[in-house]
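User: Hello, can you help with two protein structures?

Assistant: Certainly.
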Amino acid sequence: MQKGKNRPEMEGPMIERNAARVTQPGISLKPGANDGLNYNIAIVGFNRIGYNLYKHKDGFLRKKQRIVGFINEYPLTQDIPLVNMPNLLGDISRLHQIVQEHRIQKIIIALDPQDFHKVHEVIEHCERENVRYELVSDLYDVVYGHAFSQIFRDISRSWEFGPRRIFDFLVSSLLFLLFLPSWILIALAIKLDSRGPVLYSQERVGKKGKIFRIFKFRSMHVDAEKFTGPQLASANDPRITRVGRFLRKTRLDELPQLINVIKGDMSLIGPRPERPYFVEKYRREIPFYINRLEVKPGVTGLAQVETGYDETIDDVRIKLKYDLQYIDKRDSIRLNLKILFKTLWVVLTAKGV
């Protein structure tokens, strides 16, 4: 869309697929207090995509949700009357005032897919103003180069709080009891190999940006980052102990996280929880990284069974694709079983990385 084009182009064929395959959600680290189902929505994109999205709103709006108006992505040069359409609330430079005046809890970004830089600019506005945002999925495909086959449905489904929580609690409790005898052997091996505690805990970022403490068997030397600061682990990382290398290859260092699952901080399967330092770093450098926080982090995940260590920023981007793919299809029993069996294979064969 050209900079001076403010009026929706309503003549000619409409882009129906943009409205039918609705959105990819994103959140900030500090979600708004009014994050329930009763919220107002604004569309950023005063164009054909935004118009078609509004036209098909009955297909994706939930009860008590309403679209209060459009936010133009460029400064407006004149008042434009709308017929049978919600209000034109202003341009994106006034996002803070618009959100406050109209009590907006969510913004749907419906921009021209070719306007790559404007998409990023709007996302930065939303995250800076701490506003929940969603992205029309065709834009997601263009920006991130990864297509999803289904609508990225609202995260707040009953599966997240009902059957899945029961499944996580029962299975993690069973696994905790089954592996408990091995804890003694692992603890003994760690103590004989290097000085320091058997277990260690560390702050991680969970669902909706909640900070919690993760538990792991220690696989690195004590004070490994004392002089370097936070660093990503690598395949031949000198900070890793001999026993720690085996624990990492078999994923046995993650066993204590069953406690986190039982407590409700984590799920058995999901994106791996990251440290606050790296979350803040990646959310600034990688589009949609913050979307990982829409669900509980997992002990294992699709990214873990399909990829290796995050040694570069490109590795993190690749893992993010798998994480978002899993979030989109996490209700698939087949996919969850595939991840669990692949994880079990790694544990039994020590073929992790």
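That covers the first. Now for the second protein you mentioned:
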Amino acid sequence: MAAELRGVLDRIRLHDYLPVLLQNGFDSWDVVCDISEDDMAHLGFKLGHRRILQREIAATRGTSYGQSLASDSTDRSPHATPTPEDSSRAHSTSPLRAEERKKRRYRRKPRPDINAPKKPKTAYVNFADTQRTDPAINAQSFVAIAREVGRRWQALPPEKKHVWECQAARDMQEYEAQMDEYKTTENYRRYQNYLKTFAHNQSRPKRSRSGHRPSAEHDRKSRSNSSDTLSNGTEETSSRPDSGSRKHDECHVAFQLAMQELSVRRDEIMALGVPRFDRHHLPPRDKTCKAAMSCRVGTGSLFFLVREEHLQEMLDHVYTSETIEPFPLMLVFLLAAVGAHYDVECMTDIERHGLFVSAVLMFESDFSSVLDHRAMWVFALLSIHSILEKHVVARHTVDVYLLLRD
């Protein structure tokens, strides 16, 4: 059995790892086929060598490399540079596999659930983390550390090893209890919906860059109607397309995905302790008016977002009316959040973040079911804001804006 393992490692030029594999219980090729990414990391496998081994395991199992192990769950570090040795060994595979790798496209992966309980480490990983605090071990190379930690784990008396395993088992039981409780929460439900919309969005074909664009006359009328809508927010919601239409499905999926990403961005900013604004707690009028006007001037060369007289009407409505309509209030918050990027002296970053968070919360609670011209211009503002913030949520908000605009 060890002879087969030695032969495979010699063939793929990873024979240097044979001793550390044998010392840690990987004494046959069948056992190595069940090795995990964490195991290889703790045994000192270089990233390039892990991929070579994973491809060989995939070939043995008759599956594609993308399906083997959990290789897609760990990305290569953006700062990692392959060594010449890694490159030569990677190119030692067959021409057919090299051609398959060239054709293999990157698949986006869903973001992890930041609210879920963290899965505990195994007994061996906890033991290894403790051993690495020993200066005598920490001063060695990574491969030497993995070899020494594996040797100590194998030599550990059964009663001491049992202590580590019992602690890991208790941690796992606590994790499972936390997961059972977490599955009853709104955050879990939202994440499951996100996974569904993400999978749907990944399966749909990409929109053509050379697709049909609306005529200039249609574009002018659309902008005019949208600007009028911004002033009062009372226009009836336009009828949606037939639920079976492809365009509606694409728009709905993109909208759901964008809302999920916006909620994550909102939670990130709220964690900074930003202020919350609403009809009862308005930001200072002079700052808001100055920022909103800066948005109109700053974006005027690119977008026609709102006419000056309509913007002034909305500001007067928000700050002088006894009953404030939610849609103009939300738009004023968004316009001011965008404008604060163009006039950085009109308000602080904390106030600007508070306006954005407040607008997103209002949109989620009052207008998340609206997919008409009003939503188009809201997503135009969200897109501009995200681009100015240099945040990746912009690609989702822009997608929704373009779908609604078409």
